[in-house]
Amino acid sequence: MSRAPEPWPPVETDLPQRHADAPDPGTDLPPHYAHCFGCGDQAEDGLHLRATVGEGHTILSQFTVTEAHQGAPGLAHGGLLACAFDEALGTTVGNLLRSPAVTAKLETSFLRPVPVGTTLFIDAHLDGIAGRKIYVSADGRLDAPDGPIAVRARALFVLVDLSHFVTHGRKEDLVAVAKDPSLLSHRPFEINP
Ligand SMILES: CCCCCCCC(=O)SCCNC(=O)CCNC(=O)[C@H](O)C(C)(C)COP(=O)(O)OP(=O)(O)OC[C@H]1O[C@@H](n2cnc3c(N)ncnc32)[C@H](O)[C@@H]1OP(=O)(O)O
Q1: CB of 87 closer than 6 angstroms to any ligand 1 atom
Q2: CB–CB of 140/70 below 8 Å?
Q3: Which residues form the Thioesterase domain (predicted)?
């Protein structure tokens, strides 16, 4: 497999417009859903990713690799790192565009091992929009915002209607959220099953 990067975004795009109600640069974002494996504070052994809005089209996220995240002894599992990027990229799309979207395609390049105890700093950037397709990418650096790059990712998100979540989500979880809206502590949209 070639290491030469393919053109990105792969199609002609426009620069996405930040939503007028997008949070300001410097804003620390609360978890979007308490049980989210990526950011939820009630997700035991989750990643507990934390995100802060950056300048322009960026959001900076970070999480610390724990023993629960191992693949090889003492090293983060690659699929779990991909999960962290899915979360960081999705947060970027959701908060800056404030429209529901889901991951359609996620590509990760693993450049360096990520040991347990490392904090990964993920700098995500909205790259382009073409109709419902949103292209977004991120670099993940070891232990500092300017540390060595360990993982790179790029993804296609597709804008969806709220009906996507209501139609496909497990009913008891949708009901739980309707009963206790604080489970969705930060939400770019409302869910009323
Ligand atoms: C704040 C929130 C943070 C959340 C972070 C976590 C985010 C997530 O993990 S979301 C969960 C994982 N993702 C999913 O479950 C999505 C499952 N997939 C789906 O539901 C559907 O396939 C979906 C919605 C992506 C697309 O279906 P549909 O709405 O019918 O649109 P469809 O017409 O097929 O695709 C729209 C466009 O995207 C393109 N596209 C869709 N999938 C892909 C793909 N895998 N690769 C390339 N292009 C694709 C299509 O070709 C089409 O392009 P064009 O407009 O040029 O014709």
Answers
A1: yes
A2: no
A3: 74-139
Tell me how far apart the alpha carbons of residues 84 and 97 are, in angstroms, rounded to a whole number.
20
Cα 105 from Cα 35, distance rounded (Å): 23
* Alpha carbon distance 50, 42 (integer Å): 14
CA distance 60 to 106: 18
At residue 91, what is the residue type? T
Testing ligand 1's pocket by substitution, the residue of 19, 80, 158, 189 carrying the most ligand atoms inside 8 A of its CB is 158
Rounded-to-integer distance, Cα 133 and Cα 114, Å: 31
SS3 percent helix, strand, coil of the chain, rounded to 5, is 20, 30, 45
> What are the tokens at 113?
């091992």
Tokens of 73: 């002894």
- Measured CA to CA, the distance from residue 29 to residue 61 in angstroms comes to 10
CATH architecture of 28-183: Roll (3.10)
- The two tokens of residue 128 are 């382009």
Instruction: Report whether pLDDT(103) > 90.
Output: yes
The complex's ipTM?
0.98
Instruction: Give the pLDDT score at 186.
Output: 54
Which amino acid residue places its CA nearest to atom 35 of ligand 1? 158
Could you read off the pLDDT of 149-165 as tens digits, one per residue? 999 999 999 999 999 99
